[in-house]
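Justification of computing resources. Each target in the renewal requires a structure prediction run like the one illustrated here; the chain below, 355 residues long, is used simply to show the kind of job we budget for.
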Amino acid sequence: MIQFRLFQLLFAPFSLLYGVGVALRNVFYRVGILRQVSFSIPVISVGNLSMGGSGKTPHIEYLVRLLKDYIHLATLSRGYKRKTSGFVMATRHTDATQIGDEPLQFTRKFPELAVAVSESRALGVPQLLAHDPGIQTVLLDDAFQHLAVAPGLNIMLTDWRLPFTRDFLLPSGRLREWRSAYKRADILIVSKCPPEMTESERVALASEIRPLPHQQLFFSTYRYGYPYYAFNPAYQALLDMETEVILCTGIANVQSLLEYVSPRVKNLINVEYPDHHFFEAGEMYDLKARYDAILSDKKIVLTTEKDVMRLELHRSLILELQIPLFVLPIEVAFLFEGANHFDNTVKEFLLNFKV
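Resulting structure tokens:
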């Protein structure tokens, strides 16, 4: 703790300079020096104030499940760490190097969804609509800081473990903007809450966040499904006290995953890489060596839905090495009976949308 405070103190001047730059940019948008664009269809933005790990992808998937049977949806992401540039439309032949792991995950899970990536959301939306004129609503992934597009509904997530109210500007903390930027949001969601979160904890955090009169505050958690074999989802595994697990991930925050898996298995070995890490062939051999070193007959390698999008680039090698790679699916669930309220809020926005 003392080292962390010292780190914050040392980097405070850089955080101040960074904050001044961000504030000036926001002022330029507010007074019209920099222009925001609006579109003739509803645009819903899902983002956060912090660097990564707040659960944007599962929340976008929640919106897709909520709306896909009623309207033609599209997602537009930056495509972080992809090997391409510019606007790219996903197809069934696309891989993670072309559009990034999260957009590929959307494509695989929802084949009917139009998925595209572009560094510029302002340019990407028109290109998306030109490619597919039937699109009725666009979901912007990780776009809270992309002020060039004015979303009709602005959803901001904040992690229960470190809400934006307790965080600091980069590089002292993880915030990409001043805390006051939360005022732009229409909906605030405290994500990754413990399923057993109490009413008193909810009230305390709501008092800390202090949503404005125009804002609605929700609390969400994760629900985990049964692990399935990466290359044939029909085969499932059971996490029990006889199973030893190697957890292989390259995500921003693995803590909630560790807390879920660890008490459910005999032993857990955590193999952790940086967020959006593109795995190399040598790391597959290392994974195999770790697997073979486990003496138990009941053992698996477990990963996330996002990570398997990058791991499958080594599908042939994983099969050759006979690594039993399983994927742990997750879905968002709203606490305190908030699901109906959230669903109705989104639906009302769409029904009342006017150009």
